[in-house]
Amino acid sequence: MKASYINKSFITLTLATLIFLISCGDNNRATQSTVPTPTVIYTPGELVSDGQGYVQYRVGNTPIIITVPHDGTLAPSTMADRTGDTERAVNTRKVAEQFAVFFNANSNGLFPHIIYNNVSRTKLDPDLNVTDGAQGNSYSALSYGTYHSYLQTAIDSVEAHFDAGVLLNLVGHDHSVQQIELGYLLSANNLNLSDTALNAYNSQSSVNHMASISASSFAEVIRGYSSFGNLLFASSYNGYTFNVVPTLDNPSPGTNPYLSGGYTLETYGSSNGGTINA
Question: 267 Cβ partners below 8 Å, 6+ apart?
């Protein structure tokens, strides 16, 4: 899931994710009844670095993976400036970190997997293919490879120990409508369709695996009562609610701009098979 415009309280995302995973677990879909500690080369909770601090991996032991590609501030002189979109997604690292702390404190010591890019987007964008993300710079390409190696390690761990996983890619947007946009590799045009018509787009979605094993229709998984977006919208903190699309009451962006997802979802989500729902 590409969660865009995540710059508010982490509590909502935390609660919604916990509820979402618990509901999946009740149907033997996304989690196992007993959560083991995966046998990996790192210790769960450990923060692994590439040695320069450009890319970091918070090792997890749950089926949750979070990626933070656009909140870096480091600008190594060895990396050339990129062209294209270089805007920083401010606070997405903070959201991921606070999520991990809250999750750990309320789950008997469990950790989500988190991959951080600490390099400025002006130098590196790991949420693109390597050609566009590193733009020919060998140092940028090296950090790009490290980022995706850590992500693949997290995915391998999830697939080895769980029936399925959830990947949240935290990015930002500058759209005039201030809301959290959940991208599932579905375009605004797809979401503007009726539920019956939308059901035909199951296989192209990054949550294809989840939808294929659900008793609910694809449209219900995406924007129904128990969908991730609806749970996120229903959560609140101190009475404050969050605008989200798609949900039951806000099923599509209409004519508003909408981010459907990008390279991370296309590469690691279940539209290409597998059990990672992104």
Answer: none
